[in-house]
Amino acid sequence: MERVRSAVKQIAYTQRSQWLSTLSPLHLSLIPVLSLSSSLYAFSLLCRHLLYRFNILHKHRLPVPVISVGNLTWGGNGKTPMVEFLARSFADDGISPLILTRGYGGADEAKMLQRQLQCTSAKIGVGANRVATAAKFLKQYGYVNFDATSEKPPFLKGTRKFHPNSGQIGAAILDDGMQHLRILRDLEIVMVNALMPWGNRHLLPLGPLREPFTALNRADIIVIHHADLVQEKDIEALESTIRKAERNLPIFLTKMAPIHFFPCRDISCKMSLRAVDNMTVLCLSGIGFADSFIQTIERMGAAYVDHIDFSDHHLFQFKEIEMVRARLQALESEFGTKPIVVITEKDYDRSPETLKHLNHYEVLVLCSRLQFLVYKGRTEERFKKIVRERLSILV
């Protein structure tokens, strides 16, 4: 199954004009099936949007402002880091946010958010039915009242109504919310992966697009993630493409900024980023886009970086740990020093017990946080100002 997933991903990120020259017979044999499935997906997507447009399926308004953080393509776009950034920003301003996440793939992202935000006022609701999850949390903790007849919640117009640490929910954040149409949102943030933005531009599963490119016209803000890992001309080209879909969208750039490591055996221990200096490193990951993770480790000064990549949300099995151990032994034999394993926080939170089977080797978890890059006068403060203005939140 992992081999098929890898083949599908390679097809999705190979331009159609290059299929015959670069894809293997296995890849080419999958294309007719993927093409049919993509057509069926497009039809179902159209039907779903029509059902909501004609109110056959109903959208729900929550009694608090709602921010959606989503993407147009699968995996690796920085949605969860942006959700964490927003949650921390709200919490720092005395606004208790409710994060609504469906808990896909063993709820690894939800577990990671719970660990990262445990010392804040943020609350995390996990469940496929996010309307029901929101209702449960709003009933349990209460929320800041507003005039229900208003088109938008008129929060904090001229005076601060929040009571810090009161526990009342003041805003909701939809994690992976762009395609979740049941909940009305006041702000739509769309994340774009600078390293691989649109793939072959086909819909799932033939390509990586979850919706047609024209769906960008629903966005209020575009954030180009991993912008530090590409050249400026690539950013300019990407911005030009986005502006063809929606001319006046504010566009911001972000990156993942490494802050420290912690060892799997003791998550309370913070280790310097220099822990990989001149070391032989094996990057082990089951994330949406491993290239950014690998490039980050390479930039830290490791002597040699090898990697084993699995599909997004992959749950490591014991037989795979045996394969990893064999690769580590080969690296140790080749370089004459004991290699270390580096994983992402998401991988740690998904498989902490399984990773303990690598106890003969040091396993380090890279902790990173989303960071804004200054670009054409667009800064983190400008981003926050747009968010506050859109939600009518004055702090």
TrEMBL record:
Keywords: ATP-binding, Kinase, Lipid A biosynthesis, Lipid biosynthesis, Lipid metabolism, Membrane, Nucleotide-binding, Transferase, Transmembrane, Transmembrane helix. GO terms for molecular function: ATP binding; lipid-A 4'-kinase activity. InterPro entries: LpxK. GO terms for cellular component: membrane. One of its GO terms (biological process) is lipid A biosynthetic process. The chain crosses the membrane at residues 30-51. It comes from the Eukaryota. Its EC number is 2.7.1.130. Pathway: Glycolipid biosynthesis; lipid IV(A) biosynthesis; lipid IV(A) from (3R)-3-hydroxytetradecanoyl-[acyl-carrier-protein] and UDP-N-acetyl-alpha-D-glucosamine: step 6/6. It is an enzyme of class 2 (transferase). This is tetraacyldisaccharide 4'-kinase. It comes from Erythranthe guttata (Yellow monkey flower).
